[in-house]
Amino acid sequence: MKLYSFQQSPKSRSVQAAAKHLGLSLDLAEVNLVALEQKSADFLQINPNGIVPVLVDGEKVVWETIAILVYLAQKASNTSANGELTNDRLVKNIQWLSWQIAELSPPIDKIIETMLVKVMHGNPGISGSEENSFEDERIREARTSSERVLGILNTHLEKNDYVTGSAIDIADFAIMSSLSNCDHAGIDLLSFSSIRAYRSRIRSLDAWASTCPPVEVGVMIVESDNLEGK
Length: 230
Ligand SMILES: N[C@@H](CCC(=O)N[C@@H](CS)C(=O)NCC(=O)O)C(=O)O
Prior knowledge:
binds glutathione, 2 domains, single chain
């Protein structure tokens, strides 16, 4: 199977980590998003949305992270390393995958986007100055929303090691991509102790650790997880 992906893309990493966990091997085809390769005519033939990740398995082309994760889980169902993807397990995963994309990600992404707009306006701090009051208000609202949804996850994880129960599954890898973005959005997870324990558990797994993208910091190349909050 071939995965069109980009090294710094959190969604590409979710798919890579899930595949590794499920024991499926992927050939990676790097699509350079900075060079806008995702908008090239050739790539648009593969995914008309012009975004990664995209999975190609023989004649089958699957885009959208949720669909790719479900495809991989179905492919790995009942193999020696994996249990059966029962209807109940599938529904639980789709519930948390939908929640991640519809509830968890949007406020976190909105903070990052609004912070970028502020940087473009030359005023990155939350200053309350008049020209930034619109962006500051947007950030405050999105922060309140993200804290509400993170609270839901935290409460769930007080009684469950992983979102679908006692074993890690595809939805956890998608949720991890949003949690990585919390650091970029400046969201403090200090008061969410069950989420922090969950994140540490997943970070210690080879499937997650081995798919960590490197980032340049000054003259050094470090693993991006090392830049994230503990
Ligand atoms: N809904 C898509 C979103 C995928 C997505 O946002 N991909 C980003 C990288 S993480 C991308 O390719 N961005 C390039 C662009 O927007 O041009 C999914 O869940 O797979």
